[in-house]
User: Fold these one by one.
Assistant:
Number 1:
Amino acid sequence: MTVAVKTFGRIGEAAAALSAERGARFFGGGTILMRMVNEADPDVATIVRSTDPALARLAVSSGRIELGAGATMAAILAERDLAFLHPVARTIGGPAIREAATIGGNLFAHSPYGDFATALLALDAIVAIAGGFGQREQPIEEFLAGRDRGGRQLVTGVSFRRPAADSFRFVKVARIRPKGVAVLSIAAQLPLASGRISGARIAYGAMDRAPVRAKAAERALEGRTLDAAGVAPAVAVAAEGAAPVDDAIASAWWRREILPVHLRRLLLGAGA
Amino acid sequence: MLEFRKDIFADERDDNLKEVGRPTQRQDILGHVTGASAFYDDHRFAGLLHLKILRSPHAHARIRSIDDAAAQRAPGVKRIIRAADVPVNLNTLLSLIQFGKDDEPSLASDVVRYKGEPILGIVATSERSAREALALVRVSYDPLPAVFDVEEALKPGAVSVNATYPKNTFEYYGKYDHQKLRYGDVDSAFGQCDVIVEDRYQMSPIEHAPTETNGSIAVPDTNGRFVVYTSTQALFFSLDTAAKINAMPSNQLHFIGGTVGGGFGGKVDTLTEPLAILAARLTGAPVRYRLSRHEEMQFGSPRGAERIYVKDGAMRDGRIVARKVTAYFDSGAYTRLSSYAAVKCAAHIPGPYTIPNVYGDVYCVFTNRTPATAMRGFGVTALDFALECQMDKLATAIGMDPIEFRILNAYRDGDMKAHRREAKNCALIECCQVAAEKANWPIREEYRRMSSRRGAASAPHASARPEAPRRQPAPAPVQQRIPYDRAGEPPAPDAPPPRPPAPPPAGSSHGATRFSSVFGTRRR
Amino acid sequence: MRTPVQFSLNGEEVAAFVEGGANLLDALRETVGDLTVKGGCWQGTCGTCTVLIDGAPRLACITLAETCAGRSIETVAGLRRGPDLHPLQTAFIEHFAAQCGYCTPGMLMAAKALLDRKPSPTREEVVEAIGGNICRCTGYEPIIEAILAASRAGDRRSA
Amino acid sequence: MAKHRGRGVAAINYPIGMNLGGDPSQALVHSNPSGKFTVALSSIDLGQGMKSVTRQICAETLGVPIEDVYVDTADSDTGPHCMGSFASRGTHRVGNAVMAAAREARAVMMEAAAEELEVDAGDLETDGRGNIRVKGAPQKSISVKDVAVAAQFRQGKTISGRGIFLVPLSDVDPETGEMSPATCYAHACLIAEVEVDDETGEVAVLKMTSAYELGRALNPKLVEQQLVGGAWMGMSHALYETPEPYYPDTRNGPRDFNEYLMPGPGDICPHDITVLERPAPDGPFGAKGPGEMCANPVLPAIANAIFNAVGVRVNELPITPEKVLRALKAKNGAPASRFR
C-alpha cells in the first residue's frame, strides 16, 4: 500500500484535508515526514501538501516580522534583513537540509531538534494556525506546551516584534562541527534600558521535550547589567525549569551541568 | 602532510625500483569520481524482490508463538521465510577454519538472545510492502532475564546466553574457558619491583558505519546456479558460509563483489547473503537484502567492547619487570569472530616492550547484546589503549619522560617476546625518536642514539644503558603502591640496585629463552 | 497509485511514474536508472545522495519525488562534459580525495553547489558546504584540499 | 572559562596478517596477445587500494609499465581463493601471491623473448618501459608486445603465472600461550596535542605528529590515505563513537548519522606524518600493512594528552566531555596547564 499525496492550492483546503483524516500528515520540507514514509511508518497514510505562496512568505519590516511556515532555513539565510536569525538558521543541519527544512517543521521537531523554535520562543512569537475551525493565533509558549497533545493542526506562519538591535543572542552547543545535533541551545532576547536588562526572554532547546522558557533566569536578569556580577544570579538559577533527558547525544546530567556555563558565556558575549 | 625518512634503515632497502614506491593514481579513481564504480547495489534485475527481516524486540526471550497469517495475505508479499526453511540453521563463521562450534542460527526459532536477532523474513515486491507486512506479524514472547556485563556473565548462576556455550565463555582447546599467556614469574617480580601501577580500562562497542550498508542481491542463474552481488569484505569466506547454510555445493554460487563502500571489519560476517540466496531459491526470483541504516547501526555487529585490567611492576630506573593483563571480550550473543580476537589479544601482550615476566588471561564472553565482530585493529586496539595509558601512568609514577620511558623498554631485535618468539625487524625506537623530533619534544642524547637493531648501542640493561633519569618528580620509593596518576614523594634512596641480568642461556625449543631472574635476559 | 513526474535530469527531459510517497533517490535509481546517485541512510542524515535541484543542494532520499516536476536536477552523471572531467573531479583525483568512493558523488555535488555560488570559497566555507556529508574513509582533509584546489583552478581559468 | 593545553604520546606495533597465519591468498596473472597483463583476484577493495597496490607489485615484478597491468577483483568464477580483506593482510598476503604469479609469468616472458632474440634468457632484462633487452647491449631488444605475439602465435607459450602465499597455521600452547602470531609487525609513535575546557569537559584535538614504520610504502599516496583517514578514525574512537552511549546499559542506541557521533570536517586537525621503512623480510618488496594500526596510537595519545592538560585520567572509551567533566569535578578543578 502506497501513500496518497494530496496537493492543495489553498492553505485552508489543506487544513481541512489534514483534519479530515487520521493518517494525514502535512508536508513541510520533508526532513521529518519523508523519513517516516521511507520507513513505512503506519501513522502516515496520506501526505497533505499546499502550494499556497503565502506559506513561503517573508514579510520583514522594521517593526513586526511575519514568516510563513513554509519558509526554509535557506530562505532565511538569503534574507539580509533577517541577519539576526542567520546564526540560528545556519545551525540547522547541513546546506542540503537547510534547503528543505522549514520554520513550520522546526516547530514540530522533537528534542534534541528544534533549535529555530527555541529562537522563536525567545522572540515571543505568535503562531498562526489553520485548523478545522478556521484561523487562530496562539502564543508560541502555549503552542509548544500543547504541541504533542494537539490534533493535526496546520501552522501557517509565525510573527514577532523585531528585537532591538544586538539584543538577540543564540548559541547551539553540539558535539559535531559544523553539523551537529544540539546538546543544548540557548536563545536570548536581552533588551537594554539605559544599560540595564528589562524584559529579558531566554529559551532553551534540548532541555525538555520541547523548547522551554528560562523564567527564573529571566527574572534574575531584570534590571541587571551584562557583566560577571550582573549575570551571576541568573546563572545561579539557570537550570530552574529545565528537564533534560538522556539521549544518544548527551546525558541529562551533562546538559544540566554545562547549561549555566553556556548561559553565562552567552550573556557575557563569550558564547557562539 | 607526509614526509619520508629514507635515511633510516636505508641499508636494509633496495630503493632502485620503478613502479613500487611511486604515488601512482588509484586504478579505481575515475569510476569513483564519475559515479561509475559499480557497488553491489548498482546492478538491476527485472522482477527484483525485497527481503526484510523481523527482529526481536527483546534482549533475551523464549518465542512462544509466531502468527504470520495476516502478513502472508498482505499485498505484495511473495514468500515468508521461517527458521524451518533454513537448510542448515546453525553456524559459526570460523567453522570454515575449524575453530569453534556452530552456535548461531540464521533465523531464531525457540529463543532470541539479543535485541534485533532475526526471527523471520518477508520477501515482497517492494521494500515498503515487506515492511508493511512485517508490522502484521504477531510474535508472543516469554521474556527471560538478560545479562549485559562481561564480568556479571562469568559469575556463578549467571543467566546462560548461548546454549552451545552454557558457561558464557568460548571454550579453548576443549578444556579452558580463556586463552592463557604465561611467561616468567610475575608474582615474584611484583614482590621485588619498586613501583606498581594497576588500572581498569573499558572499551566501548563501535559501529563500523560504512557509508554503504551491508547488503547483497541473489539472482537465479542458468543451470541452477545463483549469481550473488555482495558488499562482503571476504568473497570466499561469504561464499562458503552461504553454501554451508544453504546446503549447496559451493560451485553453484557465483559471488561478485570487490567494490565496496567501506568495511572496516563490518562486512565479514556474511549477514545478508545466506538469506538472500535462500529467498531467491524459494521464489525463483532475484532478491535484494539490504540493511537499513538503523539496522546497520544497531544490529549490524559492532566492534566488541573489551574490559581490560592491567597490573604493571617497574623499577626506579624505568625498567618494566612485570605486566599482568586480564581481558574480557564482549562477544555478544554469539561467537562470530571474538574467539579469534582473544587469541590475537593474548599474542599482543605485553605490547611492543621487552618485559621479562608477563601473565595474561583473555576471555571471550557471551552477553545478550548484538554479536560483536572484527573491526580495524581487531583484538589489539583496546589493549593498546590500556597498555599505552599504563605506560603514561608508569612514566609519571617513576618520574621519567614518557617517550624516553618507551624507548628504554622498547623491544629490540633479538629480544624474547612473551609468546616465546624472538623479536625481529623492530622499529619502535626509531618511530619514537622521529615523532619526538618532529614534535619538538626534547629527549636526551643517549635516547636519541638508541636503536632497535642488534649490536647497536641499544639495550638499556647493557653498558650503554643510561643512568637513572634526572627528570622531575624524583623516583618513587621501593615498594610504594601508587594510585596511577600521582607521582610519589621523593624516594628513600635505600633501594638496592637491581641485579645485573643473567647471561642469556641457550635458546630452548622454538628459540624460547628461560628466565632465571626477575629481571630477565636480553639477547645482544 | 503511480503518478507521472517530468523533470530535467542533467539537461535531458525525463519522465517517470512514481509510487505515492516515493523519494527522489529511489525514483532516480530504480525508475529513471541513474545509478551514480548513491543511498547511504534514507533518513536524511548522511548526505551520500546529495543532488542539485535548480542549483541548490538537496538530499534525494528525503525529497518527495513528485515535488520535482518541472525542476532541473543535476547528479554526478552530468558533471563531466563528454570526455572532459569537471575541475572538481580532476581535483578529487589529484588530491586522492576518494577511498571507497561511496560518498564521493554526494561530496562532489555538495562541492559543486558551493562553487557554483561562490567560486573562491574560504576553507571555512568549504567545511560548511560538506558539513552534511559523511565520509568514513578519508578524514575529510583531502576532500577539503581538493575542493579548494578546484576553486583555485577556476580562478586560473577565469583569470 | 579556562582552557588547558596538553600533549600525550603513544607507541604501538601491529601484527600483519591473520593471527597464527593459515590465511592463504592466490593470484593469477596472464598476458593477452599484445602484451597487456591482467591480474585475477577474488580479493576485495573496500577503499584501501587493493586494486592499485597489487597492480604496482605486478608491474614492478614483471618489469612492465603500470598502464600495461589491470587488476580484476572479486569474482569467484575467475578469481582464485583469497581469505579476505581484513587483519592488515591485503598488501602482505595478496601482494606476495601476486608477486609469485608475476614472477612465474615473467619467467615465461623472458624465455619467449630469449627465443626471439636467440640469446640466453639469463642475459635478458626488462627496461620497465615495455621492452626486453640484452644486458649490456640495449640495442638488442624486443618489445613485450612482440614477445606476447610470438609466444601466443609462434611459440605456443602462455605468458601467465599462478601464485599463492600462505603463512602456515601455527599451534598455540594452551598452558603458556606460546605461539607464532605474525611474521612481521608495523610500528608507530604518535603525539597528540589537545585543548580541554575545564568548565564543560570538551576536548579539542589541535594537532597530531606521528611516525609510522610500514616496511615499505608501496604507494606513498595510498599510505597517506590510510594514515590520515585512520588517525581521524582513531580520534573518533577516542572521543566520540559508541552505538551504546550508556554501555553496558543498552539505552539510547543511535539510529542514524545524527545520533552516531563522529568528528565532522570542522573537528579535524593538522597531522604531521613521517614514514619510516624497515623492510619486512617476507613482505612484498618489504611491505607490511598500514590499514589497521594507523588508528591505534591515537586513542591512548589523546587520553594521555588530556591528563597532561588537566590532570585527569579517563579509562573508559569514548572519552566524552561528560566523563572528563565528572573526573574534573572529582578532583575539583583543573591545575594550571602542564604543557610540555
Number 2:
Amino acid sequence: MSRIGVFVCHCGLNIAKTVRVSELAEFAATLPDVVVAKDYKFMCSTPGQEMIVNDIKQHKLDRIIVTACSPLMHEQTFRKVLTASGLNQYLLTIVNIREQVSWVTHDIEEGTAKAKALLNGAVYRSRLLVPLTSRVIDVNPNVMVVGGGIAGIQAALELANTGKKVYLVEKNSTIGGHMAQFDKTFPTLDCSACILTPKMDAVLQHKNITMMTSCEVSEVKGFVGNFDITVRQKARYVDHSKCNACLACTEKCPGKGISEWDESLVKRKAIYIPFPQAVPQKPIIDKESCTFFKKGKCRLCEKACEQKAIDFEQQDTFVQVKVGAVILATGFDLMDTKPLVQYGYGKYPGVYNALEVERLFNSAGPTGGKVTLRDGSEPKSIAILHCIGSRDKNNHEHCSRVCCMYSLKFAHLFKEKTSADVYHFYIDMRAAGKGYEEFYNRIIEEDVKFIRGKGARVAQSADEPGRLVVEAEDTITGKFIKLPVDMVVLSPAIVPRADARDIARLFNLSTDKQGFFMERHPKLAPLSTMSEGIFIAGVCQSPKDIPDTVAQAYGAAAEALTIVVRDKMELEATTAMVNPASCCGCQNCVRVCPYGAPSYNAEKKVSEINEALCKGCGLCASVCPSSAIIARHFTNDQVLAEMEGLMEF
Amino acid sequence: MSFEPKILGIACNWCTYTGADLAGTTRLQYPQNLRVVRVMCSSRINPSFIFRAFQLGADGVLIGGCHPGDCHYNTGNLYARRRLAVTKKILEFSGLEPGRFRVEWISASEGNKFAEVVTEFTAQIKSLGPQTKFKISQ
Amino acid sequence: MTISFKQIEEKLKTEAKRLLESGQASVVLAYGKGYDEKHPMPYVARNPSDVANIVFNEYCNYNMARYLVRYPAGTKIAVAVKAADSRAVIQLIQEEKVKREDLVLLGIPVYGMKNPKTQEIIDGKTTGGLYNPVLYDILLGDEVHGQAIQSPYDVLAAYELMDKEARFAFWKKEFDKCIRCYACRKACPMCYCDPCFIDQNKPKWGDKSPQSHGNLMYHLTRFHHLAGRCIDCGECSRACPVDIPLYLFHKKVAKECEEMFGQAAGMSIEDKPALVNFRVDDSDKILE
Amino acid sequence: MLKKTTIDKLPELAAALMEKGTLVAPVKEDAGFNFREITDAKQVDLIFHNTIISPKSAFFPQVEDFVRYQTGKSILEAAPVELNLKPTFLFGVRPCDVKSFQIMDIHFSGTGVVDPYWQKRREATTIFGFAFDMNEAADAAEFYHTLGIGAADPEGSDIFMVRKDDILMLKVITPKGEKLMTGLSFLTDASADEIKYFDDYITKGYDYKTCYTCVDTEAIAREFEAIFDNADFWTKISDACLSCGVCTFVCPTCYCFDICDETLFSQGTRRRVWDACMFTDFTLEASGHNPRTKVYQRLRQKVCHKYSYHIRKYGVISCVGCGRCTRYCPVNIDIFSIVEEAVKAKWYKRL
C-alpha cells in the first residue's frame, strides 16, 4: 500500500478554464491509495511547493502526483521538492493536463473527463514506482564549441576566461564566420572587421583555447559530462606547425580557385588564406584547383617555402577529444535562390544575393569596396527585394529576421558609395530592436524609395538591353509596377546549414520544421537541447542578428559552465537492468542496443547491461521475449498499470 | 449519447510527446478521446502493450515516434517500425479492424500534425464503433 | 521417386553408429520406438548400442532441433533433420543458441510424412513447402526432386479470404479451446525462453486461467515472439491436445514477414533475425 | 433393477435429466469428445471411446472462482463466491474415470481436510457410469485393466450403463441412483436376456484386454524408491519429454492447482487454476530457488508421485490407466512403459 498525494494545479486559468480542478481533486481523493488530494492556483509557486512539502510530512506521503503542465516543463522543479522532503525524486508522477488537456479543448466537460482518466492512469502507475538512485559520474571540465563564427568565438572566449579548456572546431580554414564577410553592421554602422578581428585574435592567443580549423566532428560517443568526440582534421597539405605565415607560397602559386569567401565573385590562389585577417593566418591548399594535384607537376609553393611546411602527402587525421559539454554554433546558409527562376539569379549578371553585396561593400572584397556591376560600371538604379524564399509558404514559412535591417544598411551604403536610386520592395518592414526603428527612419530620410509589395519577377528589359525590370504590385496604390533597374539585390531566406541534419544526428538533436536545431523549450530553455550537455547558440537555432547571437553565446557558455564547473554529477537513473533469473540468453538486447550497453555473459548464460552506457530508451526491454529486462521507471508493469488506469474511466 | 471512444496513445518522449505539447502550446484543438502514455522511445513499446490496450477496452491505439532517421536513440524507431508492422498484421489476421491501430511519425515540431492525426484517427474510430472483440468482459 | 523409409532408417542407424563410435558426436538426436508403430518417439542415442532402437517412418514428425538447447554448450550433437527441422537449426545458429561446429546435421530428404492423429499427409501444410533439408552435413538418401512444390502459404488462402468478422469468430473459437497446457511452446524449437513471458508475475501479461482474454494474450504474443523466426515445422499444432491450428497463424505471420523484410526464417546462417534487425530503407508502407 | 432405453431416445433421457438439474455429458468437439454442460439434449453423444479431458473437471473445474474482491479501498472488500448447485448428472463416465473420483476423494475430503467445492459438487452429482465397448479395437495407450479396473466395472457409479447395439441398459448401483431412477418413468424394464447380457458383460470386463495382472503396488513403490537417485535412468526416460502440461491436464487423478488473483480495474477474483508439476515455475520458490530445474526431475516427480509416494502415503496407485497422458502426449511417452523400465532397471542393477 502506498500513500499518494495528488496536487492539482490551476495554472491560473490556463488549466482551470477548461478543467474543473476542484472536482478533479475530489475525484482523486476517491482513487486507490490516495491519501490527500488538493488543488491550488499555482503549484509551481513557492506556496504551492511548500504545500507539497508540508503534506509529505503531515500525511507521510510516499508517492506524489502533480497534475499540472507537461513533465517537460516542471518535472525537475517538483523532483527537487520531493528531494527536499526526503522522498526519492523518482516517486513523482506528473500528469500533463495543460498542454495535452486544457489547452487543446474549449469544452470543460471533455477536459475534466480526460483529466480524470489521465490522473487515474497516473495513480495506477504511481503505486508501482520505486525509488531509483542516480549514478554519480566524474565530469570532464573541458568544453567543445562547434562553429567558429561570432557565436562560437564569443562562447569559446567566455569559457576560456573562466579557466576551462575549450576546443573550438571550425570546418573552414579560418574562424570568423559570416560576420567576417560583412563590411558594416546595422544599425550602428560600425565596421564589422573592427569589432570582430580583435576577438578572432584573442581566440588565437588564448592559452585555454585549442583552435581546430579545417576540422569536422565525425563521431560523438558518451554522454553529458563525458563526451568522447572524434574530430576529423581535414588535410591542409600545409604543416601548420612549421608554417610561419610568410605567405610566400601564395605569391608563387599559379592555381586558380574560386573564392568561397568572396561568394564566388573572384578567383583566388590554390594555396591561400581566405582573407587578409584570417585566423590562423596560415594557408591551405585547395586540392581541386592545385596544379600539382591536378596535373602532377608544379610544386612551386614547396620551392617557395623556406619552412618546408608544404606536405602534399598529408592525409585526413582523426583526433579524439574528451569534453564535458558541447556548444553548437554552426550558423546558417543563405537559401539557394537559383531555383526561384522568376528572380533570374544566376541568369542575369545584374542580380546579386545579399552576401555577394556584403563583399562588394567590403574594402577587402573583390572590388576593394567599390560598388560596381560585373562589367565594372556603376549602377544607376538598384532594387532590393526582401523576403526571397522566406515568409513564403511555398519555400520557407519563417521570417529570416535580419533581412529588413541589412537591406536598410545596404540602401545606406549604396547611397554612400554610389549616386544610384535605391528601391526597396518589401512586404512589411520589421525593425524590432534597439535603435532599429530609428535606423529605418534615418534611411527613409536618405531618399531611399520604399515600395510596399513583394518583388514578383525580375526580367530583362525589352527597351533597354542589359537593364533589368522588377515587377511587383504596390499594395499601397494597388498598382502593378514595372521598374527598370541596373542592379537587383535579393535578400534570401536564411536556412540551416546544408549539413545541419547530419550534425543533429551526430549530437542527437531534434530539428524543427525548417531544419534549425530544436531548443529544449522555446522560452525557458532556448539554449539547451533535448540532449543533456549539448547547447546551441546563434543562427543554427533560428535566424537572429549579431546582438542576439552574441547574447546567446554568453548564455550558452554559462549553461555549459553549469555542467563543467562541477567535479561530479548525477545522471538519470532510468536505465535498464537484466533480471538474470528470467533471462533466457537469446541476446536480442545485445543485437539491438545502439550504445552497446548489453553484453552476453556466456558463463552465466545471461545478458548483462553496463549502465554507464545505457541511455534508457527501453528498446532492449521490448525485444526481450521473457521480460527479463527492466527498463527502470518505464517497467512493463508500470506501463501496463498506467494503461489500465487510463482505460478504466 | 454519441459514442465517445477511448483511444490509447503511446508517444515517445522526444518527438511525439513534445509535438503533442507543442499542439497545446499553440492552442490547437483536437478531440479529447486520446490518453497518452509517455515512453522514452517508440522502440520501448512492447507489442503486448498493444494487445493489452485492446483488452483493456481501447477502441483504438495510436503510436507516435520520431521520424525514421531522427530517433533520439539513433535506430530505436527503425526497430519499432518492423515490430509494430508485425503487430499490425497479427491484429489484422486475428480479425480486429485494422483501422484501430495506427503508427505515426510525429516530430517535436509537428504540433499541427499531432492535432490533425488525433482528429482524423478519432473520427475513424468513431466510425468503426466500439471495440468489443478484444475487450475483456467482466 | 518414392521414399524408402526403411532405407533412411538404415542410413540413420549406420551414420549414428559411426558418429558415436568415432566420437564425432556424443549424442545423436533421432527417432525411436514408441508404444506402437504409429507413435514413434524422439530418441537420444548416446552409445553405439543404442542405435538399434532408432527407427524412421512416416510418423517421425518431431523436430529434433527442439532438443538442441538442452545440452551444455560444446556438446557434440548429431541431429536428424528434415527440411523444416534444418531451418530450425539454422535459426538457432543465427540466434547463437547453438554453434554450427558443434553439430553434425543428418539431413533427411523426405515427403509423405503423416499426422498420426488424422492420417493426413502433412507435405506443404507444415513443412515450409520443402522436402530437402536446407543445411546438412550428411544426406540420408537422395534429394527429392520432381515432387510437386507447394507454396507453404497456399493453405492460408481460405483464411485470408474470410472477412474480419469470420476470422475473429474462427480464432476466438480456437483460442477459447486452449487449456494452457503449453504443449505448443514446449514443442517449439524456437521457444526456448525459461520462463516464458506468460509465466511471469511481474509483469503479468495475461491471466493464468484458461479464459478467452488470457489465451488471446498468450497466443498473440507468442505469434509475435515467433515472427520472423517460425520455420513452419507444425509441431505446435500437432502437440496441441485440442487441435488448435496454430500453424495457420504462424504461417500468416511468416508470410507477412517474408514480404515485408525479404527474408524467410532459417534459410541462411548469415541472416540476422528479422525483428532484431532493420534496414534504413524499410518502407513506411509496412505500417499501413 | 435394470432399466433400458434406446440410443435414439437418448435426447429424451437427456431432456428429463436437464429438467431435474444440470446434465454433464460427452459432447463431440473438433478435437474429440469432452464432458460439457448440456444445453441442448441432442448434444449428448455416447458413441465415443473416451473424452480428452477427464471428467474430474466436473468436480474440480480447471478454473474455480473462490473470492471476488475490490482493491483500491482502504479496507479490501471481498466476498466468497457461493456455489449454487443444482442436482447434477454426470453422464457416460468410463469405469476407470469413475474410479479416479475415489482416488481424488482421498485428497479433497479423505484426509479430513474437506474441500467444500469438491465436496458439494460430489454430493450434488449422480454418476452414470458407462462400460467400455468391448467390441471396439483395443487402444494401445490404455491399461486400466492392469490396475485391476474392469472395462465394465460398476464400482463407484450411482447408475451403471452398458450399451448393446441400439439398446442402452441402466442399472442402479447406489441408493442415490435408485432415487433418481424411480423418477425416470419412461425407462422400460430390461428383459431377462438383457439382464444376463449385462451381468456377463461386467464379468467379462475384468478379463478384457488384460496384459498384466495383479500388480504388486508395494513392490512398485519399492522399485521406484530404489532408483530415485539414478539420474542416468531418469534422464534417459525424459529424453523425449517436452515438459508440457498435457499429461497432467488430461489426467483424471492429477489434482495440483495454483491460486491466482486476477484483477482488472480494481475488480478481482481469487481463483483456483489447474497447475502442472511438469511446468518449470511449478516449484519456483519466492526466493528464486527452484528445486526442480531439470526435465527429468519433473518427470520423475510426476511418475513417482503416482506410482510410489501415493502408494506409500495412501496405499493406492494414483493412476487409473485411462491412457490419456500417453494418448495425448505430443511425443508419445507411455507412462506404463516407464513403470516397466523402472522395474527392469532395478533388476538389472540387482544382477
